[in-house]
Protein backbone atom coordinates (compact mmCIF):
# COMPACT_ATOMS: atom_id res chain seq x y z
CA UNK A 1 0.00 0.00 0.00
CA UNK A 2 2.76 2.46 0.91
CA UNK A 3 4.39 1.91 -2.49
CA UNK A 4 1.10 2.69 -4.25
CA UNK A 5 0.64 5.90 -2.24
CA UNK A 6 4.20 7.03 -3.01
CA UNK A 7 3.73 6.30 -6.72
CA UNK A 8 0.65 8.53 -6.79
CA UNK A 9 2.48 11.27 -4.92
CA UNK A 10 5.58 11.08 -7.11
CA UNK A 11 3.51 11.23 -10.30
CA UNK A 12 3.01 14.94 -9.70
CA UNK A 13 6.73 15.47 -9.16
CA UNK A 14 7.49 13.56 -12.36
CA UNK A 15 5.05 15.69 -14.34
CA UNK A 16 6.69 18.85 -12.99
CA UNK A 17 10.10 17.49 -14.04
CA UNK A 18 8.74 16.79 -17.52
CA UNK A 19 7.24 20.27 -17.86
CA UNK A 20 10.44 21.89 -16.60
CA UNK A 21 12.67 20.11 -19.10
CA UNK A 22 10.22 20.33 -22.01
CA UNK A 23 10.12 24.09 -21.47
CA UNK A 24 13.94 24.31 -21.62
CA UNK A 25 14.29 22.22 -24.79
CA UNK A 26 12.45 19.50 -26.73
CA UNK A 27 12.63 16.19 -24.85
CA UNK A 28 12.13 12.58 -25.95
CA UNK A 29 11.23 9.55 -23.89
CA UNK A 30 14.59 7.80 -23.58
CA UNK A 31 16.32 11.04 -22.57
CA UNK A 32 13.59 11.80 -20.01
CA UNK A 33 13.91 8.30 -18.52
CA UNK A 34 17.62 8.89 -17.93
CA UNK A 35 17.02 12.36 -16.50
CA UNK A 36 14.39 11.03 -14.09
CA UNK A 37 16.70 8.18 -13.10
CA UNK A 38 19.34 10.76 -12.09
CA UNK A 39 16.76 12.13 -9.64
CA UNK A 40 15.93 8.73 -8.18
CA UNK A 41 12.84 7.91 -10.23
CA UNK A 42 13.38 4.43 -11.65
CA UNK A 43 10.62 3.81 -14.13
CA UNK A 44 10.12 1.94 -17.36
CA UNK A 45 9.17 3.36 -20.73
CA UNK A 46 5.85 1.57 -20.21
CA UNK A 47 5.22 3.93 -17.31
CA UNK A 48 6.66 7.12 -18.82
CA UNK A 49 5.03 7.06 -22.24
CA UNK A 50 1.44 6.97 -20.93
CA UNK A 51 2.32 9.98 -18.75
CA UNK A 52 3.66 11.86 -21.79
CA UNK A 53 0.59 10.92 -23.85
CA UNK A 54 -1.73 12.00 -21.04
CA UNK A 55 0.06 15.34 -20.71
CA UNK A 56 -0.19 15.81 -24.47
CA UNK A 57 -3.91 14.95 -24.38
CA UNK A 58 -4.40 17.47 -21.54
CA UNK A 59 -2.81 20.19 -23.68
CA UNK A 60 0.35 20.54 -21.59
CA UNK A 61 2.78 19.13 -24.17
CA UNK A 62 3.05 19.40 -27.92
CA UNK A 63 4.47 16.42 -29.81
CA UNK A 64 6.64 16.74 -32.90
CA UNK A 65 7.87 13.71 -34.82
CA UNK A 66 11.37 13.93 -36.26
CA UNK A 67 13.38 11.51 -38.37
CA UNK A 68 16.55 10.64 -36.44
CA UNK A 69 18.89 8.19 -38.17
CA UNK A 70 16.01 6.73 -40.15
CA UNK A 71 13.74 6.31 -37.11
CA UNK A 72 10.84 8.48 -36.03
CA UNK A 73 11.48 10.04 -32.64
CA UNK A 74 8.77 11.93 -30.77
CA UNK A 75 9.89 15.18 -29.17
CA UNK A 76 7.79 17.05 -26.64
CA UNK A 77 7.76 20.74 -25.76
CA UNK A 78 5.47 22.64 -23.44
CA UNK A 79 2.43 24.45 -24.72
CA UNK A 80 1.34 27.82 -23.35
CA UNK A 81 -0.99 25.93 -20.99
CA UNK A 82 1.92 23.73 -19.93
CA UNK A 83 4.02 26.81 -19.19
CA UNK A 84 1.24 28.30 -17.06
CA UNK A 85 0.78 25.03 -15.17
CA UNK A 86 4.53 24.89 -14.55
CA UNK A 87 4.52 28.42 -13.13
CA UNK A 88 1.68 27.52 -10.78
CA UNK A 89 3.29 24.20 -9.81
CA UNK A 90 6.54 26.00 -8.96
CA UNK A 91 4.69 28.44 -6.70
CA UNK A 92 2.97 25.58 -4.88
CA UNK A 93 6.19 23.58 -4.62
CA UNK A 94 8.10 26.53 -3.13
CA UNK A 95 5.28 27.16 -0.68
CA UNK A 96 5.17 23.50 0.35
CA UNK A 97 8.95 23.28 0.64
CA UNK A 98 8.91 26.33 2.89
CA UNK A 99 6.38 24.68 5.19
CA UNK A 100 8.19 21.34 5.25
CA UNK A 101 11.54 23.04 5.84
CA UNK A 102 10.13 25.15 8.69
CA UNK A 103 8.66 22.00 10.26
CA UNK A 104 12.18 20.59 10.81
CA UNK A 105 13.36 23.65 12.71
CA UNK A 106 10.45 23.62 15.18
List strands and helices in order, with pairings.
Layout: H1 2-24, H2 29-38, H3 45-57, E1 61-68, E2 71-78, H4 80-105
Antiparallel strand pairs: 1-2
Helix pairs in contact: 1-4, 2-3
InterPro entries: Metal_resp_DNA-bind_regulator, Tscrpt_reg_PadR_N, WH-like_DNA-bd_sf, WH_DNA-bd_sf
Organism: Robertmurraya mangrovi
Domain Transcription regulator PadR N-terminal: 18-85
List keywords for this structure.
alpha+beta; two-stranded antiparallel sheet; 4 helices; 2 strands; 68% helix
Short summary of the structure?
With 106 residues, the chain is α+β, with helices and mostly antiparallel strands.
Descriptive account of the structure:
The protein has 106 residues and is an alpha+beta fold. 68% of the residues lie in helices and 15% in strands. The protein has helices at 2-24, 29-38, 45-57, 80-105, and strands spanning 61-68, 71-78. Pfam families: PadR. Residues 18-85 form the Transcription regulator PadR N-terminal domain. This is PadR family transcriptional regulator. It comes from Robertmurraya mangrovi.
**Outline, from the CA principal axes?**
globular
Radius of gyration: 15 Å
Order of helices and strands: HHHEEH
Strand residue percentage: 15-25%
Which regions are unreliable across 5 or more consecutive residues at pLDDT < 50? none
The side-by-side strand order for the widest beta sheet comes to 1-2
Structural class: alpha+beta
Mean pLDDT reading: 91
Sheet bearing the most strands, described? 2 strands, antiparallel
Helix share, percent:
55-70%
The total count of helices amounts to 4
Report how far apart the termini are: 30 Å
Amino acid sequence: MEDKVLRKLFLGFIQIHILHHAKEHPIFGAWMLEELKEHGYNMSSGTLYPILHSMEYDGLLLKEERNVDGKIRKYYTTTEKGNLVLIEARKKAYELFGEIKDEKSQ
